[in-house]
Write a structure and sequence with these properties.
The chain is of the alpha+beta class. The protein folds into two domains: about 1-95 and about 110-220 and about 265-280, no CATH class; about 220-265 and about 280-380, no CATH class. Helices cover about 40% and strands about 10% of the residues. The strands form four sheets. The chain has a four-stranded antiparallel beta sheet with strand order 1-2-7-4, sandwiched between helices. Strands 3-10 form a two-stranded parallel ribbon. Strand 5 (about 160) and strand 6 (about 165) form a beta hairpin.
Length: about 375
C-alpha cells in the first residue's frame, strides 16, 4: 500500500521522514518498490511491440532492453520510489465535447508543462534524499525508458485499469507519475490489487475502439496517439470519431467510476491557463508558427509543432457541423504545409455541398503539387 497524508500505517522512522518530505514538496502519494519487475512486464512489452501497436513511437522499440527493467537503466538501483502528483480536473472533461465550436484539449496539457513542474520538485527531493540517506540517485519524470505504470502498481500507488492507465482509490485516473532510483535498500510496499471488478466503461466509451481487450490497446487507433504522435494525415476512418478533440483524449480516464472519489488538483500550474474564448476553433485555425509557439510557450502542446496542431483543429472544424467555419478551412488551403492543406480540404468537404467543393477544387488543384493533398480531393469521406 502506498502512503499519503491520510495513511498512518506502521513504517520505519526513516521511511516516515521520506514520506513527509515528499508531501511537503507537493507530491500527493508515494510508494516504494523493488526494482526487479515481474516477467509478465517484459512479455507484455514484447507482445505490444511485435503487434506494432506502438505505431510511430519508435523510441519504445529502440529502448526496449532498458525499458524492461530499472536495473537495465541503472545497474546500481536497489529501490525505486514511485511518486504521484494529482492533476484532477475541476469539472468532468466529457462536458467539453458538447460545444463543437471549441477545441477540446486533454486535461494533462491544459496547464503548464507538468514535466518542468514535477522535475523541479524531484530535484529538490533528490538533493534532500542524497544527504539524508548518503546515497546516489537518479530522478525521472515520464521521458526515460521506464515502465512507470508497472512500477507504480508494485509500489502500491494504484493499479493498472482496463484502460491500461493507473487508477487510484484516492485520485481516480488523474495522477502524473515520476520516479527516483536509489542505490540503497528501503523496504518495499505492498502491491495494489486490481479494483476494476467487472466494470468495462473505459473500454466501451473509446470513440475509435482502440482497446483490443481489457488492459490491451492498439495505440495506433487511440485519439491521443493520432492527435499527438501521428505525424501525417490522420487516417480517414478515425476523423469523424475525433470530434473536437484537438490534443489528446480523456474519455477512458474521465468515465472511470473511481473518479467520484478523486479530489481536485491543488497545483494551480496544472490547471487550465487559457480562457474559453482562446480555444475557439476559428481563432486557433489562424495561428501562425510564431503565434502558435507564443500561445503554447509553457505547454506540452508546443512539442507537436504548429502544422500538426492546425491539422487537428481543421479535423475538429470538419466535425463542427458549423458551416460558417468553412471560411477558416478555406483560408488554410493556401497554407505552406501539405498537412494543413490536406486537412483543410477534408473539413471543407464535410461542411459544403458538392457543387461548392467542385468550384473550390477547380481553383486550387491547378497549382497543387503534393500528392497527398491532391488525393484528399478524391477521398471518400463518408
Amino acid at each position: 500500500m502506498s502512503h499519503s497524508i491520510s495513511n498512518k500505517g506502521e513504517i520505519t522512522k526513516k521511511k516516515k521522514l521520506i514520506i513527509e518530505k515528499s508531501q511537503a514538496l507537493g507530491f500527493d502519494v508515494i510508494g516504494f518498490a523493488n526494482p526487479k519487475l515481474p516477467k509478465s512486464v517484459k512479455k507484455n512489452l514484447d507482445s505490444f511491440l511485435k503487434s506494432n501497436f506502438h505505431g510511430e513511437m519508435d523510441w519504445l522499440a529502440k529502448n526496449k532492453h532498458r525499458r524492461e527493467s530499472p536495473e537495465n537503466l541503472w545497474s546500481d538501483v536497489k529501490t525505486v520510489i514511485s511518486l504521484g502528483s494529482n492533476y484532477g480536473p475541476h469539472k468532468n472533461p466529457l462536458e467539453n465535447l458538447i460545444n463543437k465550436d471549441y477545441g477540446n484539449i486533454s486535461v494533462y496539457a491544459r496547464g503548464e508543462d507538468y514535466h518542468k513542474i514535477i522535475k523541479k520538485n524531484l530535484k529538490k527531493f533528490g538533493g534532500w534524499l542524497a544527504k539524508e540517506l548518503n546515497c546516489n540517485l537518479k530522478v525521472f519524470v515520464d521521458t526515460a525508458p521506464i515502465m512507470e505504470k508497472n512500477i507504480a502498481e508494485i509500489a502500491g500507488i494504484g493499479w493498472q485499469g482496463k484502460h491500461s492507465n493507473i487508477v487510484s482509490k484516492n485520485y481516480g485516473s488523474w495522477l502524473f507519475l515520476s520516479e527516483i532510483f536509489l542505490d540503497v535498500f528501503i523496504s518495499e510496499d505492498i502491491e495494489e490489487k486490481d479494483n476494476c471488478g467487472t466494470c468495462k466503461k473505459c473500454l466501451k466509451i473509446c470513440p475509435t475502439d482502440a482497446f483490443i481487450d481489457k488492459y490491451k490497446m492498439d495505440a495506433r487507433k487511440c485519439i491521443s496517439y493520432l492527435t499527438i504522435e501521428h505525424k501525417s494525415q490522420i487516417p480517414l476512418e478515425y476523423r469523424n470519431k475525433i470530434g473536437n478533440r484537438i490534443y489528446g483524449c480523456d474519455d477512458c480516464l474521465a468515465i472511470c467510476p473511481w473518479n467520484k472519489f478523486a479530489s481536485k488538483s491543488k497545483e494551480i500550474k496544472f490547471l487550465t491557463n487559457k480562457k474559453e474564448e482562446d480555444l475557439k476553433l476559428s481563432k486557433l485555425s489562424k495561428l501562425s508558427d510564431q503565434e502558435f509557439r507564443n500561445f503554447f510557450s509553457s505547454s506540452p502542446i508546443k512539442r507537436i509543432g504548429r502544422n500538426r496542431f492546425i491539422r487537428n483543429v481543421l479535423i475538429a472544424i470538419g466535425n463542427s457541423d458549423n458551416r460558417s467555419l468553412s471560411k477558416d478551412a478555406l483560408d488554410n488551403l493556401k497554407d505552406e504545409s501539405p498537412l494543413v492543406r490536406g486537412a483543410a480540404i477534408w473539413a471543407l468537404r464535410k461542411l459544403l455541398n458538392n457543387k461548392e467543393i467542385s468550384n473550390i477544387k477547380k481553383k486550387y488543384i491547378i497549382n497543387e503539387k503534393d500528392r497527398s493533398v491532391i488525393s484528399e480531393w478524391d477521398n471518400d469521406i463518408s
